[in-house]
């Protein structure tokens, strides 16, 4: 998620430091829209048991750039077969990791993580294939988008000529060694919404999913370069922070409205960083944590507002810490999110850190977390980051899930 590799290495320290942490009307190129994919959606009456499948930097799938069509398909079918074997029922697949696509798009070039070169047609429609094969197996398919990231480097050299970053360079900013679309430009949000709704129109995805990357994680001694846009668009706001939050709020609201207008059955959910605000920052609503990063203040993501307004169907906070953690304790955060999910009638899934199992002292930590979640009726399931971590069966955790809390083949009722 992000560069996810960067996120994995840094998430462990975010709770200890306030320093850095690093999960339209423009028509692009000559790609043709995919034909509408019609197949039976999955009906779920039990807990969600999801797996994030990251494509950025070829973390989970495809395993590397330039694989043949048959190799890519075979790898993805193996993912689905393992998800089924583990008694899980949903995949959250990153189909727009940067300003690129794993499907033919009017708005974005083909992803470099398929062929090795952005803009090169892989020879098939990966998204069509993935949705169909997931649904054949009774597995939900959630389309995971990164709304603002253009590139995991600061160079434009690897962007194809049809990339929005080349067509509209004035919409972009460079920050922390990466390129981003600037949320402070109103046309950017229009472009992002249109590029996502394109998928809802053309594919029978079960959900639209975004993770924690709105404004990027702050980089020490670097100011996000949007002062010109703040002067132009933000004069009515008391602070640049209020203006930035409003930019993201507008994206979330418009995206929700546009998705539901196209297909009211498609879920729209967001997986934010695990701490909204610390109680020391917000005594009335903050959590009893000491996190170095806060959604509201650092990523300008006001999750509670989106929940209160009904702009998201579910929230899946990334509670990537262990039970007993000194600064961001797992149980404390599950209780906090459960409280606000219940008040706002928002479905709650817990994002859990399969990638940290080997670092945790307790080999049963992940199992204990799932069992703890079930004490709270607001928690409707879990999503694990990420597939490759589960595949290695760290400390026998994947087998223990399948043979323990997930042994009933996905029929945990609410």
CATH homologous superfamily (4th level) name: Glycosidases
Strands, total number: 11
In CATH terms, what is the fold-level topology? TIM Barrel
Reported for the largest beta sheet, the result is: 8 strands, parallel, barrel
**Based on the structure given, which CATH architecture is correct?**
Alpha-Beta Barrel
Which CATH class applies here? Alpha Beta
Low-confidence stretches are 2-41
The rounded Rg comes to: 20 Å
Which geometry do the CA atoms define? globular
Distance between the termini: 30 Å
SSE string: HEHEHHEEHEEHEHHEHHEHEHEHH
Brief overview:
The protein has 414 residues and is α/β, with parallel strands linked by helices.
Could you explain the architecture of this structure?
The protein has one domain (about 50-405): Glycosidases (TIM Barrel), CATH 3.20.20. The chain is about 35% helix and about 15% strand. It is built from 14 helices and eleven strands. The protein has helices at about 5-10, 70-85, 110-115, 125-135, 165, 185-200, 225-235, 240-260, 295-300, 305-310, 330-345, 365-375, 385-390, 395-405, and strands at about 50-55, 90-95, 140-145, 150, 170-175, 180, 205-210, 265-270, 315, 345-355, 380-385. The chain has an eight-stranded parallel beta barrel, surrounded by four helices. Strands 4-6-5 form a three-stranded antiparallel beta sheet, with no helix packed on it. The protein is globular and about 55 Å long. The protein starts with a helix and ends in an 11-residue tail after the last helix. About 50% of the residues are buried. The model is unreliable at about 1-40 (pLDDT under 50). Keywords: Signal. Pfam families: GHL10. This is Glycosyl hydrolase-like 10 domain-containing protein. It comes from Leptotrichia hofstadii.
